[in-house]
Protein backbone atom coordinates (compact mmCIF):
# COMPACT_ATOMS: atom_id res chain seq x y z
CA UNK A 1 0.00 0.00 0.00
CA UNK A 2 1.42 3.41 -0.92
CA UNK A 3 1.37 6.52 1.19
CA UNK A 4 -1.40 8.00 -0.96
CA UNK A 5 -3.50 4.93 -0.46
CA UNK A 6 -3.36 5.46 3.27
CA UNK A 7 -4.01 9.17 3.25
CA UNK A 8 -6.72 9.47 0.61
CA UNK A 9 -9.42 7.26 2.22
CA UNK A 10 -9.23 9.13 5.53
CA UNK A 11 -11.97 11.71 5.95
CA UNK A 12 -12.21 14.54 8.41
CA UNK A 13 -15.52 13.90 10.09
CA UNK A 14 -16.09 16.59 12.68
CA UNK A 15 -14.35 19.29 14.64
CA UNK A 16 -15.78 20.06 18.03
CA UNK A 17 -14.57 20.78 21.54
CA UNK A 18 -11.11 21.36 20.09
CA UNK A 19 -10.90 17.85 18.70
CA UNK A 20 -10.80 16.69 15.07
CA UNK A 21 -12.35 13.31 14.37
CA UNK A 22 -10.96 11.47 11.37
CA UNK A 23 -12.74 8.46 9.92
CA UNK A 24 -10.69 5.67 8.38
CA UNK A 25 -11.88 2.52 6.58
CA UNK A 26 -9.75 -0.29 8.06
CA UNK A 27 -7.71 -1.25 11.11
CA UNK A 28 -4.61 -0.90 8.98
CA UNK A 29 -5.43 2.74 8.23
CA UNK A 30 -6.26 3.31 11.88
CA UNK A 31 -2.91 1.99 12.99
CA UNK A 32 -1.03 3.97 10.34
CA UNK A 33 -2.70 7.25 11.20
CA UNK A 34 -2.42 6.79 14.94
CA UNK A 35 1.20 5.77 14.94
CA UNK A 36 2.78 7.36 11.88
CA UNK A 37 0.82 10.40 10.78
CA UNK A 38 -0.72 11.79 13.94
CA UNK A 39 2.17 14.02 14.97
CA UNK A 40 2.36 15.54 11.50
CA UNK A 41 -1.38 16.12 11.35
CA UNK A 42 -1.37 17.87 14.73
CA UNK A 43 1.51 20.02 13.54
CA UNK A 44 -0.37 21.05 10.38
CA UNK A 45 -3.51 21.77 12.39
CA UNK A 46 -1.54 23.98 14.74
CA UNK A 47 -0.02 25.87 11.81
CA UNK A 48 -3.38 26.32 10.13
CA UNK A 49 -5.46 27.29 13.14
CA UNK A 50 -2.94 28.56 15.66
CA UNK A 51 -4.54 26.22 18.22
CA UNK A 52 -3.65 22.88 19.72
CA UNK A 53 -6.24 20.62 18.15
CA UNK A 54 -6.58 17.12 19.52
CA UNK A 55 -7.21 14.23 17.13
CA UNK A 56 -9.15 11.02 17.21
CA UNK A 57 -9.37 8.24 14.62
CA UNK A 58 -12.48 6.15 14.22
CA UNK A 59 -13.33 3.26 11.94
CA UNK A 60 -16.18 3.99 9.54
CA UNK A 61 -18.09 1.00 10.85
CA UNK A 62 -17.91 2.37 14.40
CA UNK A 63 -19.71 5.54 13.51
CA UNK A 64 -23.07 4.04 14.27
CA UNK A 65 -25.76 5.80 12.32
CA UNK A 66 -23.41 8.61 11.38
CA UNK A 67 -22.62 9.65 7.85
CA UNK A 68 -19.03 10.53 7.03
CA UNK A 69 -18.73 13.62 4.89
CA UNK A 70 -16.11 14.71 2.43
CA UNK A 71 -15.44 17.87 4.32
CA UNK A 72 -15.04 18.72 7.93
CA UNK A 73 -18.51 19.12 9.34
CA UNK A 74 -19.28 22.80 9.56
CA UNK A 75 -18.73 24.24 12.99
CA UNK A 76 -21.96 25.49 14.46
CA UNK A 77 -22.56 29.17 13.79
CA UNK A 78 -22.29 29.68 17.52
CA UNK A 79 -18.83 28.53 18.21
CA UNK A 80 -18.11 30.37 21.40
CA UNK A 81 -17.39 26.91 22.79
CA UNK A 82 -14.10 27.14 24.60
CA UNK A 83 -11.94 24.05 24.19
CA UNK A 84 -11.68 21.91 27.29
CA UNK A 85 -8.41 21.77 29.12
CA UNK A 86 -7.41 18.08 28.99
CA UNK A 87 -5.47 18.55 32.24
CA UNK A 88 -8.65 19.30 34.15
CA UNK A 89 -9.59 15.80 35.21
CA UNK A 90 -10.72 14.15 38.44
CA UNK A 91 -7.34 12.44 38.64
CA UNK A 92 -5.45 15.74 38.72
CA UNK A 93 -7.78 17.31 41.30
CA UNK A 94 -6.61 17.16 44.91
CA UNK A 95 -9.42 16.42 47.31
CA UNK A 96 -9.59 17.97 50.74
CA UNK A 97 -12.23 18.93 53.28
CA UNK A 98 -12.94 22.19 51.45
CA UNK A 99 -13.88 20.57 48.14
CA UNK A 100 -14.80 16.97 49.01
CA UNK A 101 -18.50 17.41 48.53
CA UNK A 102 -18.11 19.31 45.27
CA UNK A 103 -15.69 16.66 44.00
CA UNK A 104 -18.02 13.77 44.87
CA UNK A 105 -21.01 15.53 43.31
CA UNK A 106 -19.12 16.36 40.12
CA UNK A 107 -17.88 12.80 39.88
CA UNK A 108 -21.41 11.49 40.35
CA UNK A 109 -22.75 13.82 37.67
CA UNK A 110 -20.10 12.62 35.23
CA UNK A 111 -21.04 9.00 35.86
CA UNK A 112 -24.76 9.47 35.38
CA UNK A 113 -25.14 12.67 33.37
CA UNK A 114 -28.55 14.25 33.53
CA UNK A 115 -29.83 11.81 36.09
CA UNK A 116 -28.28 12.41 39.50
CA UNK A 117 -27.75 16.10 40.00
CA UNK A 118 -29.27 18.34 37.43
CA UNK A 119 -28.25 21.07 37.38
CA UNK A 120 -25.09 20.76 39.40
CA UNK A 121 -24.06 24.21 40.56
CA UNK A 122 -20.62 24.72 42.08
CA UNK A 123 -19.95 28.03 43.75
CA UNK A 124 -17.06 29.57 45.66
CA UNK A 125 -14.29 32.17 45.61
CA UNK A 126 -11.71 32.90 42.93
CA UNK A 127 -9.26 30.20 41.86
CA UNK A 128 -10.66 27.40 44.00
CA UNK A 129 -11.09 24.79 41.26
CA UNK A 130 -14.65 25.35 40.04
CA UNK A 131 -13.69 25.38 36.37
CA UNK A 132 -11.37 22.45 36.93
CA UNK A 133 -14.16 20.30 38.38
CA UNK A 134 -16.67 21.43 35.77
CA UNK A 135 -14.34 20.50 32.93
CA UNK A 136 -13.43 17.25 34.67
CA UNK A 137 -17.09 16.27 34.27
CA UNK A 138 -16.89 16.99 30.54
CA UNK A 139 -13.57 15.20 30.09
CA UNK A 140 -14.86 12.14 31.94
CA UNK A 141 -18.06 12.12 29.87
CA UNK A 142 -16.03 12.34 26.66
CA UNK A 143 -13.78 9.55 27.80
CA UNK A 144 -16.80 7.32 28.26
CA UNK A 145 -18.50 8.50 25.11
CA UNK A 146 -16.25 10.36 22.65
CA UNK A 147 -19.31 11.34 20.61
CA UNK A 148 -21.04 13.11 23.48
CA UNK A 149 -22.09 16.62 22.48
CA UNK A 150 -20.75 18.88 25.16
CA UNK A 151 -20.53 22.63 25.17
CA UNK A 152 -18.42 24.55 27.64
CA UNK A 153 -18.83 28.33 27.70
CA UNK A 154 -18.48 31.18 30.09
CA UNK A 155 -21.73 33.01 30.68
CA UNK A 156 -20.12 36.00 28.94
CA UNK A 157 -19.74 33.86 25.82
CA UNK A 158 -23.37 32.90 26.10
CA UNK A 159 -24.35 36.55 26.28
CA UNK A 160 -22.15 37.39 23.25
CA UNK A 161 -23.54 34.52 21.24
CA UNK A 162 -27.06 35.57 22.04
CA UNK A 163 -26.43 39.19 21.09
CA UNK A 164 -24.79 38.07 17.82
CA UNK A 165 -27.75 35.88 17.02
CA UNK A 166 -30.08 38.85 17.38
CA UNK A 167 -27.81 41.05 15.26
CA UNK A 168 -27.58 38.50 12.48
CA UNK A 169 -31.12 37.15 12.71
CA UNK A 170 -29.86 33.66 13.49
CA UNK A 171 -31.66 32.95 16.73
CA UNK A 172 -32.87 29.61 15.47
CA UNK A 173 -29.29 28.40 14.88
CA UNK A 174 -28.31 29.80 18.25
CA UNK A 175 -31.05 27.79 19.93
CA UNK A 176 -30.07 24.67 18.07
CA UNK A 177 -26.42 25.08 19.01
CA UNK A 178 -27.29 25.37 22.70
CA UNK A 179 -30.15 22.94 22.94
CA UNK A 180 -28.98 19.99 20.87
CA UNK A 181 -26.45 18.88 23.47
CA UNK A 182 -25.76 16.11 25.93
CA UNK A 183 -24.27 18.52 28.40
CA UNK A 184 -24.05 22.28 28.74
CA UNK A 185 -21.42 23.72 31.04
CA UNK A 186 -21.67 27.41 31.84
CA UNK A 187 -18.92 29.04 33.87
CA UNK A 188 -19.44 32.13 36.03
CA UNK A 189 -23.20 32.54 35.76
CA UNK A 190 -22.99 35.66 37.93
CA UNK A 191 -22.27 37.57 34.68
CA UNK A 192 -25.88 37.01 33.66
CA UNK A 193 -26.79 39.50 36.38
CA UNK A 194 -28.90 42.40 35.02
CA UNK A 195 -28.96 40.96 31.48
CA UNK A 196 -32.67 40.32 31.49
CA UNK A 197 -33.19 39.32 27.87
CA UNK A 198 -30.31 36.87 27.96
CA UNK A 199 -31.60 35.51 31.24
CA UNK A 200 -34.90 34.71 29.59
CA UNK A 201 -33.14 32.96 26.71
CA UNK A 202 -30.98 31.06 29.15
CA UNK A 203 -34.06 30.10 31.13
CA UNK A 204 -35.62 28.60 28.01
CA UNK A 205 -32.43 26.81 27.01
CA UNK A 206 -32.16 25.46 30.52
CA UNK A 207 -35.71 24.12 30.45
CA UNK A 208 -35.27 22.34 27.13
CA UNK A 209 -32.07 20.62 28.26
CA UNK A 210 -33.45 19.78 31.66
CA UNK A 211 -36.70 18.39 30.26
CA UNK A 212 -34.61 16.10 28.07
CA UNK A 213 -32.43 14.95 30.99
CA UNK A 214 -29.34 16.57 29.54
CA UNK A 215 -26.71 17.46 32.09
CA UNK A 216 -26.32 21.11 33.06
CA UNK A 217 -23.34 22.24 35.11
CA UNK A 218 -22.98 25.79 36.34
CA UNK A 219 -20.43 27.69 38.38
CA UNK A 220 -20.76 30.98 40.21
CA UNK A 221 -18.62 33.08 42.50
CA UNK A 222 -21.35 33.08 45.17
CA UNK A 223 -24.53 31.33 46.12
CA UNK A 224 -26.97 32.06 43.27
CA UNK A 225 -29.50 33.23 45.82
CA UNK A 226 -27.13 36.07 46.62
CA UNK A 227 -26.32 37.09 43.04
CA UNK A 228 -27.93 40.48 42.52
CA UNK A 229 -30.32 41.09 39.65
CA UNK A 230 -30.90 37.50 38.71
CA UNK A 231 -34.57 36.76 38.11
CA UNK A 232 -36.27 34.68 40.72
CA UNK A 233 -37.26 31.97 38.28
CA UNK A 234 -33.69 31.57 37.04
CA UNK A 235 -32.40 31.33 40.60
CA UNK A 236 -34.99 28.70 41.38
CA UNK A 237 -33.84 26.69 38.33
CA UNK A 238 -30.20 27.05 39.32
CA UNK A 239 -30.75 25.59 42.76
CA UNK A 240 -33.15 22.94 41.55
CA UNK A 241 -30.63 20.12 41.45
CA UNK A 242 -27.62 20.22 43.72
CA UNK A 243 -25.77 23.33 44.86
CA UNK A 244 -22.34 22.77 46.37
CA UNK A 245 -19.78 25.17 47.72
CA UNK A 246 -16.00 25.07 47.46
CA UNK A 247 -14.20 26.91 50.24
CA UNK A 248 -10.48 27.76 50.39
CA UNK A 249 -8.37 24.66 51.01
CA UNK A 250 -6.88 24.10 54.45
CA UNK A 251 -3.13 23.98 54.99
CA UNK A 252 -2.82 20.22 54.45
CA UNK A 253 -4.71 20.34 51.16
CA UNK A 254 -2.64 23.29 49.98
CA UNK A 255 0.53 21.32 50.66
CA UNK A 256 -0.90 18.33 48.79
CA UNK A 257 -1.78 20.56 45.82
CA UNK A 258 1.77 21.93 45.76
CA UNK A 259 3.19 18.42 45.83
CA UNK A 260 1.01 17.41 42.90
CA UNK A 261 1.91 20.51 40.93
CA UNK A 262 5.62 19.88 41.53
CA UNK A 263 5.19 16.32 40.25
CA UNK A 264 3.29 17.48 37.19
CA UNK A 265 5.91 20.08 36.36
CA UNK A 266 8.80 17.72 37.16
CA UNK A 267 10.09 20.04 39.83
CA UNK A 268 12.32 17.80 41.89
CA UNK A 269 14.01 17.89 45.27
CA UNK A 270 11.76 20.46 46.87
CA UNK A 271 12.21 20.31 50.66
CA UNK A 272 8.98 19.94 52.65
CA UNK A 273 9.69 23.17 54.49
CA UNK A 274 9.43 25.02 51.15
CA UNK A 275 6.02 23.51 50.45
CA UNK A 276 4.94 24.38 54.00
CA UNK A 277 6.17 27.92 53.65
CA UNK A 278 4.41 28.55 50.32
CA UNK A 279 1.21 26.94 51.57
CA UNK A 280 1.25 29.12 54.70
CA UNK A 281 1.74 32.26 52.70
CA UNK A 282 -0.89 31.72 50.02
CA UNK A 283 -4.08 30.64 51.69
CA UNK A 284 -7.07 31.61 49.61
CA UNK A 285 -6.45 30.99 45.93
CA UNK A 286 -5.09 27.80 44.35
CA UNK A 287 -4.15 29.61 41.15
CA UNK A 288 -1.91 31.94 43.19
CA UNK A 289 -0.60 28.99 45.15
CA UNK A 290 0.56 27.32 41.95
CA UNK A 291 1.93 30.63 40.68
CA UNK A 292 3.98 31.02 43.86
CA UNK A 293 5.59 27.61 43.38
CA UNK A 294 6.54 28.49 39.81
CA UNK A 295 7.91 31.82 40.99
CA UNK A 296 10.18 30.11 43.50
CA UNK A 297 11.34 27.71 40.81
CA UNK A 298 12.20 30.48 38.35
CA UNK A 299 13.88 32.51 41.09
CA UNK A 300 16.02 29.52 42.07
CA UNK A 301 16.93 28.84 38.44
CA UNK A 302 17.87 32.46 37.79
CA UNK A 303 20.18 32.47 40.78
CA UNK A 304 21.45 28.95 40.11
CA UNK A 305 20.42 27.87 43.59
CA UNK A 306 18.43 24.91 44.90
CA UNK A 307 14.84 25.52 45.99
CA UNK A 308 15.64 26.12 49.64
CA UNK A 309 13.57 27.86 52.29
CA UNK A 310 15.71 31.00 52.12
CA UNK A 311 15.28 31.16 48.32
CA UNK A 312 11.53 30.72 48.73
CA UNK A 313 11.40 33.50 51.30
CA UNK A 314 13.26 35.85 49.02
CA UNK A 315 11.23 34.92 45.95
CA UNK A 316 7.92 35.48 47.71
CA UNK A 317 8.75 38.67 49.54
CA UNK A 318 5.69 40.89 49.62
CA UNK A 319 3.47 38.16 48.21
CA UNK A 320 0.58 36.60 50.11
CA UNK A 321 0.11 36.65 53.83
CA UNK A 322 2.77 36.82 56.46
CA UNK A 323 3.17 33.17 57.42
CA UNK A 324 2.97 33.73 61.16
CA UNK A 325 -0.13 35.90 60.78
CA UNK A 326 -1.84 33.35 58.59
CA UNK A 327 -1.11 30.63 61.08
CA UNK A 328 -2.75 32.72 63.76
CA UNK A 329 -6.06 33.01 61.95
CA UNK A 330 -5.85 29.35 61.03
CA UNK A 331 -5.10 28.53 64.65
CA UNK A 332 -7.93 30.70 65.92
CA UNK A 333 -10.37 28.99 63.58
CA UNK A 334 -9.15 25.57 64.67
CA UNK A 335 -9.33 26.40 68.38
CA UNK A 336 -12.80 27.91 68.17
CA UNK A 337 -14.06 25.04 66.04
CA UNK A 338 -12.68 22.49 68.51
CA UNK A 339 -14.16 24.39 71.47
CA UNK A 340 -17.64 24.37 69.94
CA UNK A 341 -17.24 20.88 68.53
CA UNK A 342 -17.78 21.89 64.91
CA UNK A 343 -15.55 21.70 61.82
CA UNK A 344 -13.15 24.41 60.75
CA UNK A 345 -14.89 24.32 57.36
CA UNK A 346 -18.11 25.36 59.15
CA UNK A 347 -16.28 28.39 60.49
CA UNK A 348 -15.07 29.36 57.01
CA UNK A 349 -18.28 28.27 55.30
CA UNK A 350 -21.59 29.99 54.87
CA UNK A 351 -24.06 28.02 56.95
CA UNK A 352 -26.34 30.33 58.85
CA UNK A 353 -27.48 28.17 61.72
CA UNK A 354 -26.95 29.66 65.15
CA UNK A 355 -24.58 27.01 66.51
CA UNK A 356 -22.20 27.86 63.66
CA UNK A 357 -22.82 31.59 63.21
CA UNK A 358 -21.88 32.46 66.81
CA UNK A 359 -18.55 30.52 66.80
CA UNK A 360 -17.77 32.06 63.40
CA UNK A 361 -18.38 35.55 64.77
CA UNK A 362 -16.27 34.80 67.84
CA UNK A 363 -13.44 33.57 65.59
CA UNK A 364 -13.65 36.75 63.53
CA UNK A 365 -13.63 38.84 66.68
CA UNK A 366 -10.58 37.01 68.00
CA UNK A 367 -8.81 37.30 64.65
CA UNK A 368 -9.20 41.05 64.90
CA UNK A 369 -8.17 41.19 68.56
CA UNK A 370 -5.20 38.87 68.36
CA UNK A 371 -3.70 39.51 64.92
CA UNK A 372 -2.79 42.56 62.86
CA UNK A 373 -4.95 41.55 59.93
CA UNK A 374 -7.18 44.03 58.20
CA UNK A 375 -10.91 43.36 57.92
CA UNK A 376 -10.69 42.37 54.21
CA UNK A 377 -7.89 39.94 55.02
CA UNK A 378 -9.88 38.38 57.81
CA UNK A 379 -12.84 38.15 55.43
CA UNK A 380 -10.72 36.32 52.89
CA UNK A 381 -9.46 33.85 55.48
CA UNK A 382 -13.08 33.13 56.40
CA UNK A 383 -14.02 31.78 52.99
CA UNK A 384 -13.93 35.01 51.02
CA UNK A 385 -16.37 37.04 53.10
CA UNK A 386 -16.88 40.73 52.66
CA UNK A 387 -15.19 43.09 55.14
CA UNK A 388 -18.63 44.43 56.20
CA UNK A 389 -19.61 40.93 57.31
CA UNK A 390 -16.49 40.80 59.48
CA UNK A 391 -17.22 44.24 60.90
CA UNK A 392 -20.77 43.24 61.70
CA UNK A 393 -19.54 40.09 63.49
CA UNK A 394 -17.02 42.02 65.58
CA UNK A 395 -19.61 44.66 66.56
CA UNK A 396 -22.07 42.00 67.53
CA UNK A 397 -19.65 40.07 69.74
CA UNK A 398 -18.38 43.28 71.35
CA UNK A 399 -21.94 44.26 72.25
CA UNK A 400 -22.93 40.84 73.52
CA UNK A 401 -19.85 40.46 75.69
CA UNK A 402 -21.17 43.40 77.70
CA UNK A 403 -24.55 41.73 78.21
CA UNK A 404 -23.92 38.01 78.34
CA UNK A 405 -21.52 36.75 81.03
CA UNK A 406 -21.40 33.23 79.66
CA UNK A 407 -20.33 34.50 76.25
CA UNK A 408 -17.77 36.78 77.88
CA UNK A 409 -16.27 33.83 79.80
CA UNK A 410 -16.07 31.76 76.62
CA UNK A 411 -14.34 34.51 74.68
CA UNK A 412 -11.94 35.20 77.58
CA UNK A 413 -11.04 31.55 77.87
CA UNK A 414 -10.38 31.21 74.14
CA UNK A 415 -8.38 34.42 74.16
CA UNK A 416 -6.20 33.22 77.04
CA UNK A 417 -5.63 29.85 75.43
CA UNK A 418 -4.62 31.48 72.18
CA UNK A 419 -2.33 34.20 73.50
CA UNK A 420 1.30 33.21 73.19
N1 LIG B 1 -8.11 20.91 44.45
C1 LIG B 1 -7.33 21.19 43.41
N2 LIG B 1 -6.44 20.29 42.96
C2 LIG B 1 -5.62 20.56 41.92
N3 LIG B 1 -5.62 21.73 41.24
C3 LIG B 1 -6.49 22.66 41.65
C4 LIG B 1 -7.38 22.45 42.73
N4 LIG B 1 -8.13 23.56 42.89
C5 LIG B 1 -7.74 24.41 41.95
N5 LIG B 1 -6.75 23.89 41.20
C6 LIG B 1 -6.03 24.54 40.10
O1 LIG B 1 -6.05 25.93 40.36
C7 LIG B 1 -6.22 26.67 39.17
C8 LIG B 1 -7.45 27.55 39.28
O2 LIG B 1 -8.61 26.71 39.30
P1 LIG B 1 -9.95 27.07 38.50
O3 LIG B 1 -9.65 27.87 37.27
O4 LIG B 1 -10.73 25.82 38.33
O5 LIG B 1 -10.64 28.02 39.58
P2 LIG B 1 -12.04 28.73 39.56
O6 LIG B 1 -12.64 28.42 40.89
O7 LIG B 1 -12.82 28.35 38.36
O8 LIG B 1 -11.60 30.25 39.51
P3 LIG B 1 -12.31 31.54 38.86
O9 LIG B 1 -13.34 31.94 39.84
O10 LIG B 1 -11.17 32.51 38.76
O11 LIG B 1 -12.87 31.15 37.54
C9 LIG B 1 -6.31 25.65 38.05
O12 LIG B 1 -5.03 25.49 37.50
C10 LIG B 1 -6.72 24.37 38.76
O13 LIG B 1 -6.26 23.22 38.09
From TrEMBL:
Annotated Chromosomal replication initiator DnaA C-terminal domain residues: 328-397
Binding site for ATP: 127, 129-131
Compartments reported by the entry: Cytoplasm
Region annotation Domain IV, binds dsDNA: where it falls in the sequence: 301-420
Biological process, per Gene Ontology: DNA replication initiation; regulation of DNA replication
Region described as Domain I, interacts with DnaA modulators: 1-81
Record-annotated AAA+ ATPase domain positions: 116-245
MF terms (GO), sorted A to Z: ATP binding; DNA replication origin binding; lipid binding
Primary location recorded for the protein, binned into one broad class: cytoplasm
Keywords in alphabetical order: ATP-binding, Cytoplasm, DNA replication, DNA-binding, Lipid-binding, Nucleotide-binding
Described purpose of this protein according to its UniProt entry: Plays an essential role in the initiation and regulation of chromosomal replication. ATP-DnaA binds to the origin of replication (oriC) to initiate formation of the DNA replication initiation complex once per cell cycle. Binds the DnaA box (a 9 base pair repeat at the origin) and separates the double-stranded (ds)DNA. Forms a right-handed helical filament on oriC DNA; dsDNA binds to the exterior of the filament while single-stranded (ss)DNA is stabiized in the filament's interior.
Protein name, as recorded: Chromosomal replication initiator protein DnaA
Protein source organism: Limosilactobacillus secaliphilus
Amino acid sequence: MTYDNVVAPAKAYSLSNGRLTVVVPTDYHLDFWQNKLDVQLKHILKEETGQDIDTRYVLTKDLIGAKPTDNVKKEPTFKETTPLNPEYTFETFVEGRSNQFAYASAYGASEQPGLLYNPLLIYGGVGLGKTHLMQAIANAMLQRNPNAKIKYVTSENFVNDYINSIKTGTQEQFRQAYRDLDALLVDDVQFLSSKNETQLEFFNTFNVLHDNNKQIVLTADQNPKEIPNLTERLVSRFVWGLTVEITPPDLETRIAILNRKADEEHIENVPNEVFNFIASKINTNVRELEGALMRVRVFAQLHSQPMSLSVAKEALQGIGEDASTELNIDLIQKKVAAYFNINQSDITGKKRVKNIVVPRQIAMYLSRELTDNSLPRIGRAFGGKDHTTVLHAIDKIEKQIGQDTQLKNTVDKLQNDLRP
